[in-house]
Amino acid sequence: MKSATVSVIGRPSAGKSTLVNTITGMKVSITSPTPQTTRNKIRGIYTDSRGQLVFTDTPGFHLSDKEINKRMQDVTVSSLSDSDMILYLIDGTRKPGKEEETVSDLILKAGVPVVAVINKKDILSAAQVDEAKSFLSERFPSSPVLLASGKDDDGVDEILIELFKYAPEGELMYDESMYTDQDLEFRISEIIREKTISSLSEELPHAIYVEIEDMEYSEEEKHVWIRAVINTERDGQKGIIVGRGGENIKRIRKESFREIRQIFPGSTLTLDLRVKADPKWRTSKKTLSRIFNG
Ligand SMILES: Nc1nc2c(ncn2[C@@H]2O[C@H](COP(=O)(O)OP(=O)(O)OP(=O)(O)O)[C@@H](O)[C@H]2O)c(=O)[nH]1
Ligand SMILES: [Mg+2]
Fold this sequence. Notes:
2 domains; alpha/beta; single chain; 35% helix; 9 helices; GMP Synthetase, Chain A, domain 3; globular; Rossmann fold; 6-stranded mixed beta sheet; 9 strands; binds guanosine-5'-triphosphate; binds magnesium ion
C-alpha cells in the first residue's frame, strides 16, 4: 500500500483547486477566474487500490508585500515543508517570470520529489508548451514533466501514476470513504465566498470574507439552520453585494443554498445571509489570524 501527502503548489490561477476537485471527483475546494481564490490549506483525499494520496491545495503564491499576501505565502510555505511530495502546477498560458522562479526556488528548497504539470493543455499553443517545458526541464531536470487539463480531466490519470510511483509505502491516513477533512462551517463559508466572488468583478472578491455566525442542526426535524455574514472592507461595498433591489444577494443565496444542501442530504435548510462591513479587515492582525489559520 502506498500512502503520501502531496502539496499542490503554483502561482495564482494555475488551476490547483480545479485539479484537486477533478482528482477527488468532489467539490473540495472553491475555484474562480479571480486570482488568489484559495486562502487556506484545503485537504482533498484520493484513495484507490494503489493506496492513498492526501492532497493539500494551497493559496497561489503571489509576490507582494501586503500583509494579506504575506499571510497567504506563509500558508503555502508551511505546506511545502510538511509534505512527502510536491505537485507543481504551472499555467502554460502565462510566461514564467520572477514569480514562477520564486515558486520553483521554494519547491527546490523543500527537497522532496516533485511532479511538474503544465496545466490548461486544452488552450495551449505548441510554443507555450515548449516554453513551459524548457523552464521546467532546466529547473527540475530529474522530475517528470506532464501536460494536462485539470478542467477537462485530460492527463490526470498520468499525474496519479507518477505520484504513486514516488509515494512511500504506508498505511492509509484516512478512511477510504473520506474525500476531505474540512470542518462543516469552513466548507459552508467557502461555498458562500465562491458564489459571492462569481457575482462580483475586479478587485472586490479580495475585499470579502465570509463567516458563519451560527449553525444549528435539529435531528428531530432534520433541519439545518445557518446564519452567515459576508463581510466587506468598506461600508460602500455592501450595496454592490446586495445589488439593485437585492438581486445580487438573492442570487448568491440561491446558488449557495443549492450547493450547501448537497452536504446535508435528506435535511431541509434555512440559510440566513447577511452583509456587513468590517472596515480595514485586510490589515487587522486579529482578523487575518482568524481567517488564515492555515
Ligand atoms: N482552460 C483551462 N482553464 C482552467 C483549467 N484549470 C483551471 N482553469 C481555470 O482557471 C481559473 C483558476 O482556476 P483555480 O482552480 O481556481 O486556480 P487556482 O490555482 O486554485 O487559483 P488560486 O486559488 O487563486 O491560487 C478558473 O477560471 C478555472 O476554470 C484547465 O485545465 N484549462
Ligand atoms: Mg485555488
